[in-house]
Specification:
Distance between the termini: 48 Å
Number of strands: 0
Strand content: under 5%
Order of helices and strands: HH
């Protein structure tokens, strides 16, 4: 996650708790016009997307095949 304002430190989101913290921080930054905060927001959005993709892939790996038949 991101810590501090200067220099910005970025860490991969690896747990659901970190994910929730990142989402809360995005809510705080959403309407900012500050350049540093916009950079943080951009990084957080990327980290959140990567975490969500990782979770989705793991969920899909564990699902049985879905069969679609023509009507």
């Amino acid at each position: 996650l991101l810590e501090g304002r200067s220099p910005m430190r970025i860490f991969e989101i690896t747990t659901n708790d970190e994910f929730k913290i990142a989402l809360a921080r995005v809510d705080q930054l959403w309407e900012t016009e500050d350049a540093e905060e916009l950079n943080e927001l951009d990084a957080l959005v990327t980290l959140i997307r990567d975490y969500e993709d990782k979770i989705l892939i793991e969920e899909r790996k564990n699902q049985p095949e879905i069969e679609i038949n023509d009507f």
